[in-house]
Write a structure and sequence with these properties.
- The complex is a heterotrimer of chains A (about 350), B (about 290) and C (about 600).
- Chain A is mainly α and about 350 residues long.
- Helix content of chain A is about 70%, strand content about 0%.
- The two termini of chain A are about 35 Å apart.
- With about 290 residues, chain B is mostly helical.
- Chain B has a single domain, classed as Orthogonal Bundle (MetI-like fold).
- In chain B, about 70% of the residues lie in helices and about 0% in strands.
- Chain B is elongated, with a radius of gyration of 23 Å.
- Among the domains of chain C are: about 80 residues, Rossmann fold; about 180 residues, P-loop containing nucleotide triphosphate hydrolases (Rossmann fold, 3-Layer(aba) Sandwich), CATH 3.40.50; about 70 residues, no CATH class.
- Helices cover about 30% and strands about 25% of the residues of chain C.
- In chain C, the strands form 4 sheets. Chain C has an 8-stranded mixed β-sheet, with helices on both faces. A 6-stranded mixed β-sheet of chain C has the order 18-19-20-15-21-22, with helices on both faces. In chain C, strands 2-1-4-5 form a 4-stranded antiparallel β-sheet, covered by helices on one side.
- The chains are: A mainly alpha (about 350), B mainly alpha (about 290), C alpha/beta (about 600).
- Chains in contact: A-B, A-C, B-C.
- At the A-B interface, helix 1, helix 6, helix 7, helix 11 and helix 12 of A face helix 5, helix 6, helix 7, helix 9 and helix 10 of B.
């Protein structure tokens, strides 16, 4: 949950070498063709990179799944008691469990069975009330999606413009105000913000209900307002920072000076810079995502929202392994999928990347 | 290709002194220092100031703000909120110091190694870093410490492990920027040992980056630790710890909100102060580099 | 020079232009006029303030730097620093600026055609800011502009990253022309390009200026380039104008001691000088400038009165302006002694390179290179960028390992195990990153000396500094307190500390000002005779190699295409490529090579 937008990210755009001034020697006076020969077709290169990245993500997920699988085994205590909960099982139950989970087989085989079951949607049962994990999941995922969706949307819609404004008027009052506010937003952990909002808007001013999810669409929104705002403040502050840093760097670059010198309007310049700033901002998407997950868990806990985050917290507390394993792997998979999309988006956004692909 | 930036790196504008710029900094700088100072005092001397802060008083009902003798009222265990908040400073603020330092030491070692050695070493370290970074810190910390059970200090160790990929990344990036420069190649030509090059030549150039990062690291560590405390990891119910106080106080939110709001504000205040200080130093450092 | 009566034939005027920053004044009281269809060259070295002067004409100074004075563009005038609104009226169709680095002056994410189109405006009769072009006319206008700069209209749909440096610079020129400027300011427009591209872009600019009738201000440190292209020249030193007049007069028959010194520092191609003319000392930084003539401390004609009061520009009988109390007309050119060049006597060989091959992913850098460096000799390697010359240097020094081939140092084959620090050392190109910024000069030199261990007698940092002609109290300084030339000397001292016999110089003077180049080259020559050092000198600059090497090798695409004694190869080049390299330099060096 790194608060600062590091300016030295491994941004792909940063490391282009400019050593080819000799290519494409010009003939005096003749109209000239493009000098750099195409090594590979674009479609071929694209297919290659998509395959490579996807394979990389899958490998990463597999490694994570192994670690998650091993959780039950590494945890202190007898494996059987871990699976059944607090009550020591009767020998019959123990034997049945051993059969069901194949505990007598070698670890690798057990893992493969587990993975097989997982991929086919057989996620086991929650130890607390024996409901299937998939049912639990279905019941809770809606709330989390709504929360994250609303919060993130609010954040992006507010923070990108704020970041741009702050960058345009760097050093001025507006910039300093926006920066100061964003520091507060970053420094306040989601549960603290959540609590303060809860206090002010649900207690002092009874504008919103303090806890739980609602019934029906409008009641839902009512219940989601404060939690979503909490999320939005935290993530938003982050995005403001990132956008501002990236925009400032772009606005200071040579191509902006040159464009200004040619009489290009400030308005167009802002959009040009923004377009170029999109890439460094995207490289931070992973960190933003990480923050978002952590914040969601905290927010759901603070506001007692029956979503996946709260489920995770409760399951950890009760050592409900099946649920914990599922949720952990699910979150990892979602993050991996989103990061894959972000990686691929560089190709869409950056001609430089497309160029490098061809070589 | 004729080099250009060097020739046009014209008549040096005298570098602005770092000290001067920082001192000229605004009210925020001073305010941050004050806040941090007070927090440190509370953390180190809390015991002396309020020796009975944690004494549970089962007969005491929850008193609201403004009650006689209890400026901010009492909490669910009958303790004075002001006292318990001061007492909670130590637990909230000291663990993160260890995390920030530990993460920096390990991150520096791995980052320097990865950037300098390159190839397989870099590949291995980077993949490991990627793996750890692909999972959100809170999630991992929660799951691991929840499943395995964790005391306060084990939570600290866990967070060091989870935080050092960030440091490694930053140090690696900063080092890569330096490693291709001629002065490093000259050191190689002198056949200096890799450790000498890394720690004598590279580290001093990375250090400014790390120094400001340390503060921001601390803020993160503090926030992460208090989040874990909030979620119930590493601290029992009733412990004097701002994160824990916050969650404990939620139950009596309508009777004495101060029990939760006070620690909430304290966390935000201290984290803010540290972040602002870190930003100030960052800006001053960057200005000093403009030559 | 008043702006009260604007003439239709003047593209631009600057009156009393001054620029300053927190550190001190950078430019003081510069005035000039640029007629339409004429080119003014502004010449100076680092610290002269010429680049900022260029920027001031567009109101594009960096933050922290402020300008004062007046600037007139066409028929409008603006009082500096000027408001954003006022500048908006002038930029694009009034004045436009072309930057030095083609790799960063275009946005990487937008197509070339779009970038050119951003600046398109209709040309109005009144000379004001025209309207944006209608969409359907844009494509045609862009194609015409591209044609103007000798590029096919297909370039419009390409991204800058797909083009070479020379092409990018031409796209930039097309973009700058889009709004039909009255004045074009070009800040070192060709410095980042290869020799052949340089000429093309310059010719292009000259042609466009003629066709469009613009005024042009060309900023450069390269006297030769300015000589070819400019009608009038303004010479700047430490922020002041020291000489101003017609090009042929100022550059060929300079009247100011500084201009004369610049001219004398130019390296001839036709003959080898025993000692190069250098200007002692260095350019004062903005905070260091004292009263009186800025050049006086370094001037061989200086009198006491020169340092007392500021010296204004005053007219000479032939019409030009000179800021000098002493000079009254063209100064005589220094006549340095020429070295007799003969074939070298056979001596033992220090380094033998045998068939070196080195490739990187996708590129074959060295395709079998062989050469020899005799004891006490100096061998030059000449080539353009991408020729493999740097790879060769790195392999010889030991920074890269060749794929195949041998390096033999005095009968010893060099491998990572047999190498020692006292065999070969290297001096790099960029003095600003050649020294560790956080380590003082003294400790850096001491560490370098220690690296050789007991093998050689240890020289102290003070001795090393004396060896390279720097004051011994520099040992306490940080690199940032030194100028570029001084840093390069420290770098040389550091590489000499372990006592190597062979010094590889990879473009070691390319990043230095002309007058400082001469200082460093003289130093290398002195060191050769003092220490019996041999040199492997790598450069793209033929004139530099001419002055420093006994024999040269011309390298192209990883192969040596011609070798021999320097005066023979350059006097009667055998290979076509060598001839090409020489002819690219010809107009700038005023001496023809038969």
């Amino acid at each position: 949950m790194s608060a600062e937008a590091t300016t030295v990210a491994w941004a792909p755009a940063a490391a282009l070498s400019a050593s080819d001034s000799g290519k494409g020697a010009s003939g005096a006076g003749s109209v000239e063709e493009v000098g750099v020969p195409r090594k590979r077709s674009l479609a071929e290169a694209l297919a290659r990179i998509i395959l490579l990245r996807t394979a990389g993500s899958v490998v990463m997920l597999l490694v994570i799944s192994v670690l998650i699988f091993l959780l039950t085994y590494l945890s202190p205590g007898n494996i059987i008691t871990n699976l059944t909960g607090l009550h020591p099982p009767t020998p019959a139950v123990a034997a049945a469990l051993r059969r069901e989970y194949g505990l007598n087989q070698p670890l690798v085989v057990q893992y493969l069975h587990w993975l097989d079951r997982f991929v086919h949607g057989n996620w086991g049962r929650s130890m607390r009330d024996q409901t299937s994990v998939s049912q639990l999941f279905a019941g809770r995922v809606g709330v989390t999606l709504a929360l994250v969706g609303l919060g993130f949307a609010m954040a992006v819609l507010a923070s990108v413009p704020l970041g741009v404004i702050a960058a345009r008027r760097a050093g001025g009052m507006l910039d300093r105000t926006i920066s100061a506010v964003s520091v507060v937003g970053l420094s306040a952990p989601a549960f603290a913000t959540g609590l303060l909002l809860l206090y002010v808007f649900a207690y002092l001013v009874s504008a919103f209900p303090p806890a739980g999810a609602g019934q029906g669409l409008f009641d839902d929104l009512d219940h989601l307002a404060l939690p979503a705002a909490t999320l939005a403040i935290g993530v938003g502050a982050y995005i403001v920072r990132l956008t501002r840093t990236a925009m400032r760097r772009e606005l200071g670059s040579d191509y902006v000076v040159f464009a200004r010198a040619r009489g290009v309007s400030e308005r167009r310049l802002t959009f040009v810079a923004l377009r170029n700033a999109a890439i460094p901002v995207l490289t931070m998407a992973g960190l933003v995502l990480s923050y978002l997950v952590g914040a969601t868990i905290l927010v759901e806990s603070t506001f007692s929202l029956p979503g996946l985050g709260l489920l995770l917290q409760e399951s950890v507390e009760f050592k409900d392994f099946a649920v914990v394993q599922f949720l952990a792997l699910f979150i990892a998979a979602v993050i991996a999928a989103i990061m894959l999309l972000v990686d691929l988006s560089y190709l869409v956004l950056s001609p430089e990347w497309r160029q490098r692909l061809r070589r | 290709m004729a080099s250009t930036s060097a020739t046009l790196n014209s008549g040096r504008l005298a570098p602005l002194a770092i000290q001067g710029t920082v001192r000229r900094r605004s009210v925020t700088f001073v305010a941050s220092l004050v806040v941090i100072g007070l927090a440190l005092v509370a953390a180190c001397f809390g015991q002396l100031l309020f020796p009975n802060a944690t004494t549970v008083n089962p007969l005491q009902t929850v008193l609201p703000v403004g009650s006689t003798g209890h400026l901010l009222g009492t909490d669910q265990l009958g303790r004075d909120v002001v006292a318990i908040s001061v007492a909670g400073a130590a637990s909230t603020l000291l663990g993160p110091v260890v995390i920030a330092l530990g993460s920096m030491v390990i991150g520096t070692f791995l980052g320097l190694l990865a950037a300098f050695e390159g190839r397989w070493v870099d590949f291995a370290i980077s993949r490991l870093t990627d793996l750890l970074l692909s999972m959100p810190m809170i999630l991992l910390a929660l799951v691991v410490s929840g499943i395995f059970g964790a005391s306060y200090w084990w939570a600290v160790v866990l967070l060091i492990v989870l935080q050092c990929p960030y440091d490694t990344r930053i140090v690696r990036a900063g080092t890569i920027e330096q490693v291709t420069k001629p002065y490093v190649e000259a050191a190689r030509l002198l056949r200096l040992s890799r450790w000498r090059i890394m720690y004598r030549h590279l580290l001093i150039n990375i250090w400014p980056l790390e120094r400001t990062n340390l503060l921001l690291n601390y803020a993160n560590a503090m926030i992460a630790m208090s989040a874990l405390s909030f979620l119930g990891v590493g601290v029992q119910e009733g412990t004097a710890n701002w994160g824990r106080q916050l969650v404990d106080g939620e139950q009596i939110l309508f009777q004495n909100p101060a029990a939760s709001v006070a620690p909430a504000i304290l966390i935000v205040l201290v984290a803010c102060a540290v972040n602002l200080l870190g930003d100030s130093l960052n800006a001053a450092e960057r200005e000093a580099q403009v030559r | 020079m008043s702006l009260a009566v604007p003439t239709k034939s003047v593209a631009a005027r600057a009156v009393d232009l001054s620029i300053s920053s927190a550190a001190g004044p950078i430019v003081s009281g510069v005035s000039f006029e640029v007629p339409l269809g004429a080119t003014l060259g502004i010449v100076g070295e680092s610290g002269s303030g010429k680049s900022l002067t260029a920027r001031a004409l567009s109101g594009l100074l960096p933050s922290g730097v402020v300008a004062s004075g007046r600037v007139g563009i066409g028929e409008r005038a603006i009082e500096l620093p000027g408001t954003p609104t006022a500048w908006r009226e002038l930029r694009g169709h009034g004045v436009t600026l072309i930057l030095q680095d083609p790799f960063t002056s275009l946005s990487p994410s937008h197509r070339c055609g779009a970038q050119i189109a951003w600046g398109l405006r209709e040309r109005t009769a009144a000379g004001g800011r025209g309207r944006r072009l209608a969409r359907r006319d844009v494509r045609e206008a862009v194609a015409r502009l591209l044609e103007d700069v000798n590029l096919s209209e297909r370039v419009a749909s390409r991204y800058p990253g797909e083009l070479s440096g020379g092409m990018r610079q031409r796209v930039a020129v097309a973009a700058a022309l889009a709004a039909g400027p009255v004045l074009m300011v070009a800040d070192e427009p060709t410095t980042a390009l290869d020799a052949s591209n340089q000429r093309d872009v310059l010719e292009l600019l000259a042609r466009l200026q003629r066709e469009h009738g613009m005024g042009m201000v060309l900023i450069s440190h390269d006297l030769g380039m300015v000589r070819d292209v400019a009608d009038e020249v303004l010479v700047m030193y430490a922020g002041r104008a020291v000489e101003h007049g017609p090009t042929s007069a100022v550059l060929d028959k300079p009247a100011h001691p500084y201009t004369a010194a610049l001219r004398d520092s130019e390296l001839p191609l036709a003959e080898r000088l025993e000692r190069l003319i250098a200007i002692p000392g260095r350019v004062p930084a903005p905070g260091e400038r004292l009263a009186g003539c800025a050049f006086a401390p370094r001037c061989r004609f200086a009198l006491d009165s020169c340092s007392q009061a500021d010296v204004p520009l005053a007219p000479l009988p032939d019409g030009r302006l000179v800021a000098c109390l002493v000079s009254s007309g063209p100064l005589e050119a220094a006549r340095p002694r020429v070295v007799e060049e003969t074939t070298a006597p056979a001596t033992d060989v220090v380094l033998r390179v045998e068939n070196l091959v080195k490739s990187f992913p996708g590129v074959l850098a060295l395709a079998g290179v062989s050469l020899e460096v005799p004891a006490g000799g100096s061998v030059g390697i000449v080539g353009e960028s991408g020729s493999g010359k740097t790879t060769l240097a790195r392999c010889v020094a030991g920074l890269d390992v060749p794929d195949s081939g041998r390096l033999v140092f005095r009968e010893l084959e060099l491998t990572s195990r047999t190498r020692t620090v006292s065999q070969v050392q290297m001096v790099f190109q960029d003095p600003y990153s050649a020294l560790n910024p956080k380590i003082r000069v003294g400790p850096a030199l001491a560490e370098a000396a220690r690296a050789a261990g007991r093998r050689i007698e240890q020289r102290s940092p003070e001795e090393l500094l004396e060896l390279v002609g720097l004051p011994t109290d520099y040992a306490r300084k940080y690199p940032r307190e030194l100028s570029g030339g001084e840093r390069q000397r420290v770098a040389i001292a550091r590489s000499l500390a372990p006592g190597p016999e062979l010094l590889v110089c990879d473009e070691s003077v390319s990043a230095l000002d002309v007058s400082v180049q001469a200082q460093v080259l003289n130093l290398l020559t002195d060191l050769r005779s003092q220490l019996g050092l041999c040199l492997l000198f790598i450069s793209h600059d033929l004139a530099v190699v001419r002055q420093v090497s006994d024999s040269i090798h011309v390298i192209k695409a990883g192969r040596i295409v011609e070798s021999g004694r320097t005066h023979e190869v350059l006097g009667t080049p055998g290979h076509e490529y060598t001839r090409q390299l020489i002819s690219a330099l010809l107009p700038t060096v005023g001496v023809s090579v038969p």
